[in-house]
């Protein structure tokens, strides 16, 4: 009888402990699940808080036309960074009309020897917007050509943030204006930057889709 009573007592004690054990396990599992569920949420929050992949803010070239720039060689971004601006432009096929104009105006040495300048460089397509007769007239008038080309040059290096709402003196001695944000900028409200923040040895270059014309 004593043995049977002892067995019953042990059984009752085990039964009494079972809910406590289950509760403890349940609490532990809940904490583990909470910890597990918190981990991806924290990671997600961290990803959301990370800086956006904004090329302009990183000081890298940006814009749709940048994709046409060669990946390597003298015409690549790394290659152009090693040469002064007129030489660098000569390695970019999209700027061949500009390079021809610079040579006709005798500005190669002027641009290559200048320090800390910004050049707004019109593409071949930008020059193609000008009626051929008018373009030929400008190309064959050295004084007029020099005036137009030097209007595209600012005597300081401009970062993208400087273009957000700017007014700058050009080498032509009159002003041009810039506006925009992020990777969308305009010059004189007429020309769009299609590949910006291109570095050369002595200049920052913003490739534009329209030729700028001085007011006078």
Number of strands: 7
Q: Describe the global form.
A: globular
Give the end-to-end Cα distance, rounded to a whole number of Å: 121 Å
Global structural class = alpha+beta
Largest sheet: 7 strands, mixed
Uncertain stretches: 1-53
Order of strands across the widest beta sheet? Answer: 2-1-7-6-5-4-3
What does this entry look like structurally?
It contains eight helices and seven strands. The chain has a seven-stranded mixed sheet. It is globular, with a radius of gyration of 33 Å. The N terminus is likely disordered.
Would you summarize the structure shown here?
With 216 residues, the chain is an alpha+beta fold. 44% of the residues lie in helices and 18% in strands.
Topology:
Blueprint: H1 2-49, H2 77-80, H3 85-90, H4 96-104, H5 108-113, E1 117-122, H6 124-128, H7 132-139, H8 142-150, E2 153-154, E3 165-169, E4 175-181, E5 184-187, E6 191-199, E7 203-208
Parallel strand pairs: 1-7
Antiparallel strand pairs: 1-2, 3-4, 4-5, 5-6, 6-7
Features:
44% helix; 7-stranded mixed beta sheet; 216 residues; alpha+beta
